[in-house]
Amino acid sequence: MNSRNIDHRDDTVFHFKDENKQEVADSTQVQKTRLRTSSKSLLRILNATADGILILDSSGYVVFCNKAAHKLLGKEEHELMGTMFGCPIADGHKTELQITRNGRVRTVEMHVSALDYENAAAVACLRDITKHVDLQKTLAASNAELKKLNEELVQARDEAIAQHKLKGQFVANISHEIRTPLSGILGLADILLNDCQLGEEELENVRLIQQASAQLLTIVNDILDFSKLDAGHISLQESDFMLDSLLEEVRDSVVGACAQKNLSISIVLDPKVPKQLNGDGQKIRQSLLNLAHNAVKFTPTGYVRIGAELQSTSYPNTVRVKFHVEDTGIGIEKLAQEKIFQPFVQADGSTTRFYGGTGLGLSIAKHFVELMKGRLSVDSEPGSGAKFWFELDLKYADADDRHQ
Length: 404
Ligand SMILES: Nc1ncnc2c1ncn2[C@@H]1O[C@H](COP(=O)(O)OP(=O)(O)OP(=O)(O)O)[C@@H](O)[C@H]1O
Ligand SMILES: [Mg+2]
Description:
The N and C termini lie far apart (about 135 Å). Strands 6, 7, 8, 9, 10, 11 and 12 form a 7-stranded mixed sheet that branches. A 5-stranded antiparallel sheet has the order 2-1-5-4-3. Helix 4 runs antiparallel to helix 5, helix 5 packs across helix 10 and helix 6 (about 245-260) runs parallel beside helix 7 (about 280-295). It is of the alpha+beta class. Helix content is about 50%, strand content about 25%. The chain is elongated and about 140 Å long.
C-alpha cells in the first residue's frame, strides 16, 4: 500500500516534472504565437492608419512603410523599402513636402520622431494636407477680396458722407437765402394790410399772400433747422430761463390757431418745478412748439395742454423735469408711432393732403431733445388723442431757487 503510495508519489513527481516541461514549452509557444499575433495586429493597425508611416534607419533608409505611406508617396512598397528617404533624423523635425502624384502637386506634412529600436532610428509620420492648404489659399484669397471690398466700401462711405455734407450745406444755404425775400414778402403784406386803404377783395388776397408766406417760412425754417441738425451744426446753448414764461410763449404761439378751431388751450405747471432753470431754453421752446403745433393741427375738438412736472431732484444742482403736450385729437396707430419721428414721415399717406406739412416737425423736436440727453416719446390710441413727452435733467438757475 505504502510502496504503491510511494510509486504513486514518484509517478506523480515524474508526471509533475514532465507536465512542467510541457507547460514551459507551451508557454514559449504561446508567447511566440502571441508575439506573431501582436506583430500581425500591429501591422494591421499600422496599415489601417490614414497617416503614412515610414520607419528609417540611422542613415535615412526606409526599413518599413505602411500602406498609407506608399499611397501618399505614389510608390509601391518594394520601391520604397530600402531606398534613401533622405530626411533629417532629428526628433520633432517638421516639414512640408511637395509631391507630384497623377500630375497633381500634393502637399504632405512630415513629422519625424526619433526611435531607438533595433535598426530603426526614426519614424516619419506623413499626412496629406493638400485640402487644408488649398482651403487656406482660398481663405487668404477671399480675405484679400474682403479687404479690398472693405477699402472700397470705406471710400464709398467717405464719399457719401462728403456728398451728404455738401448737400446739407446746399440745402442750408438755399433755405437761408429763401428766408430773406420771404420775410420781405411778409413785411410788405403786413404794411399793405395795416397802412394801405385796400378794398375787401384786395385785403382778402393780401391775407392769403400773408398766410401762404407764413406757411412757407415755417417750412423753410424747419428745413434749415433739419439740415443744420443733420450736419451737426447745432450745439447746446445753455443759460438761465424762466419756465413759466417759456411755456406761455409756446401757448401764445398756438392760441390763435386754437381759437380758430374752438379748442381750449392751457398750461399745466407743477408748482414743485423751480421757476428759474438753467438749460437750453431755446431748444426746449422749439421742441414744445413743434409738439404744440401738431397737437392743434391734429385735434378737431377738445383741448390742448402744455405742461411741465417735477420728476426728481438731485441735490445740489439738478432737477429732472417732464415736459408734455397733450391733446384730444385723432391719435396715432401703434405701428405709425414707431415711424413718425423719422424725417419726412407722416402717420398715413393722406395726412399731407388733409393737414399739410412736410413731416419734419417731430424729427427736429426729437433731435433737439436728444441733444439735451432726453428721449421724445408718445402715448396715444387712435381716436383718443396723443400725449408727447420728454424728460430732461436741468440745472437750478441759482442757489436761491432751490427750495421754492
Ligand atoms: N398730436 C398728434 N396727433 C396725431 N398725429 C400726430 C400728432 N403729432 C404728430 N402726428 C403724426 O406724426 C406725423 C409727423 O409729425 P411731424 O410734426 O413730423 O410732421 P407734420 O406735422 O406732418 O409736418 P410738419 O411738422 O413738417 O409741418 C404727422 O404727420 C402725424 O401723422
Ligand atoms: Mg408737425
